[in-house]
Amino acid sequence: MALSVVYAVDTGHVVGALALTGADAPADVAALVGRALPLRVSLGEGRTASLPLNARDLAVAAVDDEPAALADPLAFGVELTAEGKPKPALVRLPSWTEGIALATDGLTVTVKVAVARTTPVVVLVSDEQDTHVLTGEIPAQQTQVKLPVTLVADSVHGVLVLVAGWAGRLGKEKAT
């Protein structure tokens, strides 16, 4: 059995994993996910938010067997070699449970420990039929970044937060 992962190019997060028997996964990410890979989160009351990651922002890698990546892909990351090729071993990313604050004027992401170097952040926020794609970075020696977005007070949104070096977070948040 061969394990292949789909990962976010900007942050290295594994966003999907598949195990194939007797065949290799296609090297072209669009052959696997189409135009986008939708991650879904329940908003309650029978509502679901779909957060589509565009195929042009994703890549595919054949990696060493890591069964946990099938159950919790956002807990893993792909590291690249100096030549920009994916390393075969996935990296288990540190988890965090606090640090996402959604407000009517933006989303603040706070990690537990100051980052050593400037760290990319990609956030998707559902909003009715649209998805806001927010990008930014946490500056070196800092712990947070605020990304601008305009939302309605007390509205509930699906949120995907990818901070390089930290486990990805997918859940629902209420704008305050």
Span from first to last CA? 46 Å
How is the main sheet built?
4 strands, antiparallel
Beta-strand percent range: over 45%
Task: Find the structural class using helix and strand composition.
Answer: mainly beta
The gyration radius over C-alpha positions equals: 16 Å
SSE arrangement:
Layout (H helix, E strand, L loop, with lengths): L1 E7 L5 E7 L8 H5 L2 E9 L2 E8 L3 E6 L4 H4 L4 E2 L13 E2 L7 E4 L2 E5 L8 E9 L2 E9 L5 E5 L7 E8 L5 E6 L2
Antiparallel strand pairs: 1-2, 1-5, 3-4, 6-7, 8-9, 9-12, 10-11, 10-13, 13-14
What does this protein look like?
The protein has helices spanning 29-33, 68-71; strands at 2-8, 14-20, 36-44, 47-54, 58-63, 76-77, 91-92, 100-103, 106-110, 119-127, 130-138, 144-148, 156-163, 169-174. Strand 8 (100-103) and strand 9 (106-110) form a beta hairpin. It is built from 2 helices and 14 strands, in the order ββαβββαβββββββββ. The mean pLDDT is 91. It is mainly beta and 176 residues long. The strands form 5 sheets. It has a 4-stranded antiparallel sheet with strand order 11-10-13-14, with no helix packed on it. Strands 2-1-5 form a 3-stranded antiparallel sheet, with no helix packed on it. A 3-stranded antiparallel sheet has the order 8-9-12, with no helix packed on it.
